[in-house]
Design brief:
Layout: H1 4-23, H2 38-65, H3 68-99, H4 108-129, H5 133-147, H6 150-160, H7 173-228
Helix pairs in contact: 1-7, 2-3, 2-5, 2-7, 3-4, 3-7, 4-5, 4-6
Length: about 230
């Protein structure tokens, strides 16, 4: 289990960055107070992509080594990726409603972000629909590798295509400091959630394996006793 000290530190940093955002960070003159959504939106997007990268690496690791902990890590990261994708889309919609006057714009980055959430949501549904552990892990690993193809499209869409999103955003010194601290806070939360889910997956898998071993023992023992008689 992730230590209480880790979560206490993470909570303290998150609260400090929230106070900093409200009292220290200047208001962007063009977009106004709505621009402050960016300090959650951007770190969530970065960690969403990192979570997807973790699924990709863990999927390769499972296919290469056939070790269960790779599969547990991939599943944990996929859960957090979907959660972060939801945060990215929600904050993006709130920002868009204020800046563009619409809750949703079918821009390349928004579209690829929605596709990403759908892909990793389908990854979790696919896992849940397969009963065999070996088949589930293998299928999920292949799917996790293929789904990662959408990640560079999300990142490059605003840079290589005509998009309502700015390819870059100029920030003053206090804004950069706020963004860095928010990135730290969201990264700590994301990493903690992945590790907590990973441990939960591991414990669940080990518990199921112990239950299966006990059931086999219960079946084998009467057979052995009958043979001995």
């Amino acid at each position: 289990m992730i230590s209480r000290a880790y979560w206490a530190m993470t909570a303290a940093i998150f609260m400090a960055t929230t106070v900093m955002l409200a009292t220290y960070t200047p208001v962007e003159p063009t977009m106004g107070p709505t621009q402050k959504i960016f300090y959650l939106h951007a770190p969530a997007a970065i960690n969403m992509l990192l979570a997807c990268l973790t699924v990709f690496i863990a999927s390769i690791g499972y296919l290469w080594r056939r070790q269960w902990w790779w599969d547990d890590l991939a599943a944990a990261a996929a859960n957090v990726a979907v959660l972060l994708a939801g945060v990215v889309l929600l904050t993006g919609m709130l920002w868009g409603r204020s800046v563009w006057g619409a809750w949703w714009v079918w821009s390349p980055r928004l579209t690829f972000s929605l596709v990403l959430m759908a892909l990793y949501g389908a990854y979790l549904v696919t896992r849940a629909s397969i009963a065999s552990p070996d088949r589930r892990a293998g299928t999920a690993a292949v799917y996790g590798i293929i789904a990662f193809l959408d990640v560079p499209l999300v990142y490059l869409s605003a840079k290589l295509t005509s998009d309502v999103h700015r390819a870059s955003l100029t920030l003053a010194g206090p804004m950069k400091l706020t963004l860095l601290l928010w990135l730290l806070a969201v990264t700590l939360i994301s990493a903690g959630l992945i590790m907590a889910r990973f441990r939960l997956n591991r414990h669940g898998r080990l518990a199921r394996q112990r239950a299966q071993n006990l059931s086999r023992t219960d079946v084998t023992t009467p057979l052995a006793e009958g043979a001995a008689a």
